[in-house]
Amino acid sequence: MRLPRRPRLLLPVAIALVAIVALFFLFSGIYTDYLWFDAIKYTSVFSGVLLTQIVLFLVGALLMVGIAGGNMLLAFRMRPMFGPAMFGGGSGADRYRMALDPHRKLIFIVGMGMLALFSGSSFAGQWQTWLEFVNGVDFGKKDQLFGMDISFFMFDYPFIRMILNFLFTAIIISIILAAITHYLYGGFRLQSPGVHASRAARAHLSVLLGVFVLLKAVAYWIDRFGLVFSDRGFVDGASYTDVNAVLPAKTILAIIALICAVLFFAGVIRPGGMLPGVSFGLLVLSAILIGGVYPALVDQFQVKPNQQLKEKEYIARNIEATRDAYDIKDTQVIDYKAEADPTKVKTDGDASVSGVRLLDPALVAGTYEQTQRIRGFYGFADQLDVDRYPDATGKPVDHVVGVRELIAPPTDQDNWINRALIYTHGYGFVAAPGNEVNSSGLPDYDAKDMPVTGSLANSTKLSEARVYYGENPASSEYVIAGGNPKNPQELDYPETGGTGQKNTTYTGKGGVPVGSFINRLVFSAKYGEKNILLSGDINDNSKILYVRNPRDRVEKVAPFLTLDGNPYPAIVNGRITWIVDGYTTSNEYPYSQSESLADMTRDRNTDRRVVAQQPTDKINYIRNSVKATVDAYDGTVTLYAWEPGDPVLKTWSNAFPGIIRPSSEMSPDLKAHVRYPEDLFKVQRFTLSRYHITDSSAFYSGQDFWNVPSDPSQGDKDTKQPPYYLTTTMPNSNPAFSLTTTFVPKQGPNLAAFMAVDSVAGPDYGKMRILRMPSNTPVPGPGQVQNSFQSTLAGQLNTMGIGASQLRYGNLLTLPYANGLIYIEPVYAQTAVGSGQEPYPILQRVLVSFGNKIGLGRNLGEALAQVFGEGQQTNPTNPNQTQPNQQPTTALQTAINDAQKAYDDAQKALSASPPDWQAYGEAQKRLDAALKALESAGATKPTPTPTPTPSSSPSGSPTPAGGS
């Protein structure tokens, strides 16, 4: 049945239009990518990756079509002259042939096109494997089984396996297509008895099967080298069974497969199916007996009864390789006495403890949000970052820092113009010393407000506080900035007093010009937004800013890197700069233990999604090879070679020459803010929980394996405690900014070890030390200390949770101190959700534990004095001045009851309609008197949560409305 003439003409036109539209959108995506790379001067990455993918696509597609299509055409040309009649008549295949034969050219072209598309795409997806193969450099180290350089296993072996897999696929597809073609055109028939085939069909299929078996022989030989990644034994790497059974078995199987291939080829000149049948049976039988049964017998009857002895050599190889691959071979393990008698400690104002960071960056994010957000369309990250900046004396102090980013335009003004043209950026850098708070328990900001003010802002000479590139989800969207320099329309920041706003126009070098019609058209297609093409506010000065998340920008520029999940901001040379740590990773390091990157880095922060989660890919090699920076104003991306000796980094530097700068070009200001990366430390602590043991026999027994403890402040056994940045003092060392963690035994809550790594750029950067606790003396672990805090001091801590407030425990810090270990934990009060107020934490108390003594103070000095001062507590205004420590009296509960009653009366007066302000004022007076009585009875006076809801003063500090 033929279609009418007009529909037959319209169909090709419709297909052509669909193809043109599809090609236009494809072009838009590629072209806008090019514009992005060109704007940040990394076109060599764009062209290098794209050209490699195109070449691999064409090679893969042509090879697959050439092999599979060529064999299909060859089978068609070999068809019998008289068709099915030569075997005594037709069969069911005739019906299929008659239906398909008139369209065989179209079917062939479409089929080969789809095969080319899939095979080419698959081959192009292996571009990293190809670039590592052609650019790989030697490691200068040899594996212990074959004596080959590590680079063979890292760069060459994956490529060889990739080629073999491709050829296996091509041959298998060729066999299937050739067999189908021969069957349809009478080359063979499935008739009783047996299979009847023409000589040409038999020869053709015998050659294809011979090539397949020949490839199998090559694969058996190459598989020998893959034994260094085996997981058969007690640990990863070639085990006793692999070396003594599987390795010779692979060699024998390769020889047998080679013989079988020859037998298949012999089937070309010798008729009958005996030789192919014998070779196929020999191949299967040898694979089962030699490749499977023999190694299983060796493993079952030789290894398992004597596994510790048999595997000793191979466990030692695994330990050595793993410690090298994870860069932990130089970790220093120190046996630590962990003395726990506070009476023997002489406190002399040790700065390493008295200056410890108390602000928890995970908790005070809410405090920053409420006191420094300024307007509802700004916000801070869910977890702030820890960095160090000098104080007035020039001494580096741990700071909790954050960037005020744009969240979204006000809800009732959320339209395209506001999103894309007006609300284009955040503004400001907010920081506070981590070791102190003001009299209200709030961070004592030294960089705050808009414009940014404070001693830190002045000392760092912050000259550009605008944030066009940031971590907030809104930053992943595009904005169009810089359109009208003479009449600025971008909101810069609200003016003081809320009487208006200050506007600005973007003048940075980042972004893609979007004034031309072509650029507006392609970006309109890319984002599906017609306003980009039609808006009159876009002109020749306009630039479109996209891919605005710092981590995404670095990932796009350096796709061969694995990036740390927590970029952090710093003031570098007067500008806000994001610092992103980049890792070179692999799962091809011989004998090294392979683990999931996501599992190794998982802790409370990743569970809460406050930092990016790593992929589940397995790795067994990692280096922090690159430090990357992203300018928060113009988006400039710069890559620095932090570990230039890393062979993997050298390989990628050969692939993309010139994109990675030497670390010598880093400015002193930037180096001052470099820190040891969190995800690398998590991977290393996960590995060191077992691989701190270097003796293979002790490793096999596993009795001294450790675990990372659960986060005690969360009360969830499945949530690991994250590592903490803080300044600490290791034995025989000066105080240093470090990244720290603790370990507990594999079974048991006691403390097993404390680990810290120096995080300041310099000669000691990356120096990792473990303090191993005595095995015969129990030292309380984080969970036990947290339990002691909450149970021993429950009565006093409950006085802080009066009324609608609740307690929140900050990060439990562990530090070496006075030949022992001291635990320090801040405690915050926060108004309960649903109380009618905006809840945010306020630091109220500090808990300290050393040995069997616990201290609770309004500040760290008081808490330390209770532990070490023998009945003396320090004056909060002068930690070295002491005053009598008053003990609780029987009036304590009465004072608590009076305070509770006064608070309830105040709330009742407020909830009246209208509010009874006179009754509220009287209740406030009684509350103040009760709190004074509470203090006299032995409890330190808590700072009440301001009531009603605090309003923000111009400086961002909360001002109580009517509260005491």
Provide a descriptive summary of the structure in words.
The protein is α+β, with helices and mostly antiparallel strands and 964 residues long. The chain contains 29 helices and 37 strands. The strands form 12 sheets. Strands 3, 24, 25, 26, 27 and 28 form a 6-stranded mixed β-sheet that branches. Strand 17 and strand 18 form a beta hairpin. Helix 5 packs across helix 21, helix 7 packs antiparallel against helix 8 and helix 8 packs antiparallel against helix 9. The chain starts with a helix and ends in a 5-residue tail after the last strand.
Key features?
6-stranded mixed β-sheet, 29 helices, globular, 964 residues, alpha+beta, disordered C terminus
Helix percentage:
40-55%
Residue windows where pLDDT falls under 50 for at least 5 positions? 870-890, 940-964
> What is the tally of beta strands?
37
Radius of gyration (Å): 35 Å
What profile does the largest beta sheet have? 6 strands, mixed
| Number of distinct helices | 29
Mean pLDDT: 86
Secondary-structure blueprint:
Layout: H1 5-39, H2 43-77, H3 92-100, H4 104-124, H5 127-135, H6 150-184, E1 188-190, E2 195-197, H7 199-223, H8 240-266, H9 274-303, H10 307-310, H11 312-325, E3 332-335, H12 351-354, H13 364-372, E4 378-379, E5 385-390, E6 396-403, E7 405-406, H14 416-422, E8 426-427, E9 429-433, H15 455-459, E10 466-467, E11 479-481, E12 490-494, E13 501-504, E14 512-513, H16 517-527, H17 531-534, E15 543-545, H18 550-557, E16 562-563, E17 568-572, E18 575-586, E19 595-596, H19 597-601, H20 604-607, E20 618-619, E21 621-631, E22 637-641, H21 647-655, E23 660-662, H22 668-671, H23 678-691, H24 696-701, E24 706-707, E25 724-728, E26 736-745, E27 753-758, E28 768-772, H25 782-792, H26 794-798, E29 805-809, E30 813-817, E31 820-831, E32 842-850, E33 853-857, H27 860-868, E34 872-875, E35 878-884, H28 892-911, H29 917-936, E36 951-952, E37 958-959
Parallel strand pairs: 3-28, 22-23
Antiparallel strand pairs: 1-2, 4-7, 5-6, 6-9, 8-10, 11-15, 12-13, 14-15, 16-18, 17-18, 18-21, 19-20, 21-22, 24-26, 25-26, 26-27, 27-28, 29-31, 30-31, 31-32, 32-33, 34-35, 36-37
Helix pairs in contact: 1-2, 1-16, 2-4, 2-6, 5-6, 5-21, 6-7, 7-8, 8-9, 28-29
